[in-house]
Amino acid sequence: MKTPGPTKAEPSAPNSANSTAEANKTVAFTPRQSRVMDALLQTDGWISRESVDRIAGASNGPQIILELRRKVTGHDGIEMLKSDATDRDGKTCKPGRYRLTSTGRQRALKAMSTAAEVA
């Protein structure tokens, strides 16, 4: 019996870190994702991680941002900036803030125009 030759490896999701919704595909948002995306679209400024948590109604803002990047904007569509701060105990920390890039805003507007909300 012959040993099979090597096969060409092909990724199941090419460029998954920067993938966005297909042009004609309807994107389904959870209510949390929809609220955060609406907030990002309503401002050109930064939204703190704590604000993302409040807007979403959950304490997993970074996960929601990750999901929005995967579904809609690509990794380059939502910027994240860590800024130096001091917490109430006097310890240094680096809270994160988020905002849409111009490319991310275009992708988000397109996705929101055909979006469906899921539970």
Could you characterize what this model shows?
The longest helix has 13 residues, at 61-73. The protein is built from 4 helices and 7 strands. It has one domain: Winged helix-like DNA-binding domain superfamily/Winged helix DNA-binding domain (Arc Repressor Mutant, subunit A), CATH 1.10.10.10. The protein has 119 residues and is of the alpha+beta class. The termini are far apart. The strands form 3 sheets. It has a 3-stranded antiparallel β-sheet. Strand 4 (85-86) and strand 5 form a beta hairpin. Helix 1 packs across helix 3 (61-73).
Record keyword descriptors for this entry:
119 residues; Arc Repressor Mutant, subunit A; three-stranded antiparallel β-sheet; two-stranded parallel sheet; 4 helices; 7 strands
For the biggest sheet, the summary is: 3 strands, antiparallel
What is the residue-mean pLDDT, rounded to a whole number?
84
Spans of at least 5 consecutive residues with low confidence: 11-22
CATH class: Mainly Alpha
CATH superfamily: Winged helix-like DNA-binding domain superfamily/Winged helix DNA-binding domain
Q: Quick one: how many beta strands?
A: 7
